[in-house]
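Chapter review: from sequence to fold.
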Amino acid sequence: MADAHVNGADTAEQTDPAPKAASPEGAGAPVRVILADDQSLMRMGFHMVLDAEEGIEVVGEASDGTAAVAQARALQPDVILMDVRMPGMDGIEATARITAECPQTRVLILTTFDLDEYAFAGLRAGASGFLLKDTRPTELAEAIRTVAGGEAVVSPRITRRMLEMFAGDLPNAASAPDSEDPRLVSLTPREREILILMAQGMSNQEIADELIVSTTTVKTHVGNVLAKLDVRDRVQAVVVAYETGLMAP
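The token string follows.
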């Protein structure tokens, strides 16, 4: 990441970026991003990287969770890059509040390790995925565009590994039968089967091969599962599968 000099940043700052090149034809409005990290050098580095990307606009910065929530409410961004270890309100609590209050905003957790308990907590709080802080600039930009489009940026397989590692923290996984959890009641037997296969880390194509159906049929079932569970993406669906005990650690 590019070097930058540390400057005194306010807890919350709405940025006024220089004019940028227009988004590629057909790309529509730029993806609006807030940077939330208590290290001003880290924010500046991300800002410099994203300023070089067409179709992405940094609209605000925050140095703690409280400021991140306030910025999200005021600016209604598409994506927030969220550090988890910040003073005061941490990134986990901020993620939970933002995803509850600003359902159109996607959160990407910033973490140091890919199997980090904080990244796991962030997913449970509603984040659409996580990124390592040393992610390459091109991968960072692609991840932002991906979650802005409604997809997750961490694979279900990685999510499963995290859930299995930290499943002891799940309140219902070992004790409550899945039939008792109201989140699963509305699922049909086929949708429940689809959810289990999703939780096993299978892609749509792999599920289609397993069930001997078309990928279009699988996509329809996956969409129904996400809608009935009231979750944003496959990663959140996998979290629910473990939380409810449908999948055992």
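Two observations follow directly from the output. The longest helix spans residues 215-229. Residues 1-11, 15-26 have pLDDT under 50 and may be disordered.
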